[in-house]
Amino acid sequence: MGYDILVVHYRAMFPAIYTMAAKLFPSLAKRVVGNHVEMDTNMDVVYSEKDGIPVYSIPIFKYIPHGRYSKKEIKNKVKEIESIVKEKGFIPDAIIGHFYNPQLEIVSSLKKVFPNAKTCVSLHEEGSVVKALLGDRSKEVLDNIDIIGFRSVPIKESFEEIYGKGYKSLLCWSGTPEFFLKTAANRKRTFSDGPMQRYLYVGQTIKRKFPKQTIEGVHKAMLDNDFTLTYVGTHDLGYPETVEYIEANGLRDKVKFTGKIPREDILRLYDESDCFILISKDEVFGLVYLEAMSRGCITIAGRGEGMEGIIEHGVNGFLCEPGNVDELACIIKQINSLSAKDKKEISDRARAKATELSDYNVAKSYIDKVMNS
To answer: How far apart are alpha carbons 95 and 117 in whole angstroms?
Structure first.
């Protein structure tokens, strides 16, 4: 869109004993720290360019995973950023951060350095997590944030339960990639008056995404009706119990695991599937839902999770209590009882919503709201 951008990325660094433990027990470290564990001990700023955009990767030290950073460390990082932007001759009109820790404190502090810059932090965490971090410093920090972004409606509501509705806000959803909106379908999307037969799951087979409960729900709804369920994604902690259920119920010929595959192949599977199911818990936002909707899949997501406010139950998709086998089976039966015309209308409305939330539209809405805050 013609903006000049400078990116600062933080590498969370821990005491050497944690780094050594992470190298020895990587699976355990991943469960404790999250999806990524920093294994190196390089405390230097690392410079690179991404699509011509300068990126500064800055180490930031803390003693405990998921803990807060010290006031001294926050202050030092603010000075480091100030030094970088002044050296580049880069005076920001907007300072935007994602994730509450350390971005809330750092962006708030940078507002004092660059008072004319618009500030925004988009939260991926519930209000109680923010409150636990900031405590009685909440007002001091939040008052220097011009507009607060939320990755989902439930996150926004949890924040407002604690802090009220007095802060300017925006919903910071991801956009549907143009690749999924513009690539021609490999078959015409059609539905019949009978039961759907082709089901799809895209995501890691981790327990909070309920891969076992997904096949249970489909199996319970379909019974002796013919169906297929394809799982796309890595084999994780929920994989063994899912396979165990499949084997115990004689469903091996109905279920396929593809592993991780290129997005071109995922797109083909979206086009070949009638229904996309991912009833995850703690799903801040899932781009796979928009991808599935953009290809016309009837989509079932977790109620009260990241798709709340995007999927309207029974209108452009369906919402199910995360992991609830009986409710999932009931929703599938409900969809299967619809006429071909009704299914097609839900599919068309899903496409329309995914198109409305294109990469470009979402990005433009985001930056416009920040700059006008």
So the answer is: 7
